[in-house]
Amino acid sequence: MFPIRDHNPSGVTPFITYGLIAANILIFIGYYDLFSDVRALNVFFWDWALIPARMSAGEGYGGLLTSMFLHGGILHLAGNMLFLFIFGDNVEDELGHLGYLGFYLASGIGAGLAQYVTAPFSQVPMVGASGAIAGVMGAYLLLFPKARVDILVILIIIFKIITIPAWIMLALWLGMQFLGGFGTPADAGGVAYWAHAGGFVIGMLLVLPLWLKRGGPAFWEKTHGHPPHPEARYAFVRSNVPIAGRSRRSQRRKGPWGR
């Protein structure tokens, strides 16, 4: 289940969201050659990723910040940037550009700390923007629970796009993080489930004062749980180009095997 877009474009140009996407892509391009040299890549991640064991030894605290701009592969980067592109613009609109940047970085640092607490002596490097983006998703859930989101559902050979309220998709995603966190040793590597869950909860807590200032439940009643912008309508449009058919003569010439 993958989100592909929401139906509520931002009311302003989300400069910070676009800048964060660009920064993540450019940084990834900058060290992409290291993926052909595992030893060099490990040294790079040792210096710049979040490694809990280093923090427990009193060093490597900068990894809390730098790790959220590193990724372990193209698909890792692409997935994170897709989520940021979908959910970041409306949250940036509500928080303002500078407020959103501070919120994003705070969510990422908080997510890193959540992962650290679960495995403080792990030597597995943690990289990725997903903790910070999880914070953005938590804010989106609190502010716009009924916003419509298109998701791509893949069931073996069946591919289908359906539209659901944001709260369903985000609640399912958060539930999967908790299930993964409880079912996987924190120092086993792979997905940093507790960073995701921690970032999500931290994002909700950070935006809670704004939600209360806007009226809390009254804000939902006023906006109907949607971003305060006209909803985009997505639909497949039939082409006006006429379709040329075969002539009767050509059909007779082809006989029963013609297709």
Shape: globular
CATH class term: Mainly Alpha
- Overall SS class: mainly alpha
Strand content: 5-15%
DSSP strand tally? 3
Distinctive features:
globular, 3 strands, 57% helix, Rhomboid-like fold, mainly alpha, Membrane associated serine protease, rhomboid family, 259 residues, hydrolase, 3-stranded antiparallel sheet, disordered C terminus, serine-type endopeptidase activity, 11 helices, protease
Q: Any overview of this molecule?
A:
The protein has 259 residues and is mainly alpha-helical. The protein has one domain: Up-down Bundle (Rhomboid-like fold). 57% of the residues lie in helices and 8% in strands. It has 11 helices and 3 strands, in the order βαααααααββαααα. The chain has a 3-stranded antiparallel beta sheet. A hairpin with a 2-residue loop joins strand 2 and strand 3. It is globular, with a radius of gyration of 23 Å. The C terminus is likely disordered. One of its GO terms (molecular function) is serine-type endopeptidase activity. It is found in: Membrane. Keywords: Hydrolase, Membrane, Protease, Transmembrane, Transmembrane helix. It is a multi-pass membrane protein.
Describe this structure in a few short sentences.
The protein starts with a strand and ends in a 5-residue tail after the last helix. The chain is mainly alpha-helical and 259 residues long. The chain has a single domain, classed as Rhomboid-like fold (Up-down Bundle).
